[in-house]
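Limitations
The structure tokens in this dataset are predictions for the assembled complex, not deposited experimental models. Users should treat interface geometry with appropriate caution, especially where small molecules or nucleic acid strands are included. An illustrative entry is reproduced here so readers can see what is and is not provided.
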Amino acid sequence: MAFTTIALALALSFQTAAPTDNSFDQKASWAWLTKQCDFGPRVPNTAPHVKCRDLIFEEVKKRCDTAELQPFTHKWSQDGSTRKMWNVIGYQNWDTATTRVVLLTHWDTRPSADQESDEANRKKPIPGANDGASGTAVLLELMRHTKSVPKSLGICYLFVDGEDLGPGLDEMFLGADYFAKHQPAKKPQYGILLDMIGDADLEIPIEPNSYHKAEKLTLGLYRHAKSIGMEKTFPMKLQGEILDDHLTMNEHGIPTVDFIDFSYDPWHTLSDTPDKCSAQSLGKVGKFLQSWLNQEEPWKIK
Ligand SMILES: [Zn+2]
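Predicted assembly:
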């Protein structure tokens, strides 16, 4: 009897340890992160930017019911050039759904490493392993797994461009702003933003603007994290206020939470490289989102 119990326990633990076909695969997610970084900095009007756009768009076309490129331009204050940008968007179950969620992240990277101590380095573009590639890597992998969510849940995968052009706030969040002003006919009911979630030492406390502008959603997500034993990664405590893509989403009627770990020393420096990030962190965020989306009625937030 004892032996049977142990054998069964072993069998079960083996089953949960090996990724099943539909469980978020952190190694696959990590491969998306390094692939983006291998292109080089993804700054608008550069070849790596276009390569990365194409990479994301090809994957979106494969995994979603419909895929679109949403182009827009911006005349950059730094050199007067017109920068070409694209949001890459994929929809799953969107037309048939009764509830619609937008999952968003920025895929562009900062053209200037303005947090570098050495002034000569401040004009160089950042590698953006965490700030750009990490959220994108999670959503690209998650997209493979969400076709199996109930048909009543529609998901919009929104890879926004121009989040980090800068240098000032008036030249940031450009893609999210463009999307929020040009929403699909069937509007999203809420949004979840990922930004800088690849830090090897990952902790994502509650971001105050998310809490104040989308309170029920924010609390719902953090309660869910606790219910599945992930309160260490998503502790129910406040961090400092962050200005990010979620602000324009909230302003335009889409309650949106920002998942961000802002305690990241290489932020906006040339040291924002893959070795500061980890596959485990991507895995935690991916598995959390997968669990949220697979709840029976995760989307009843109102
Ligand atoms: Zn940034």
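Some entries come with short summary sentences. For this one: Residues 110, 131, 164, 268 surround zinc ion (CB under 6 Å).
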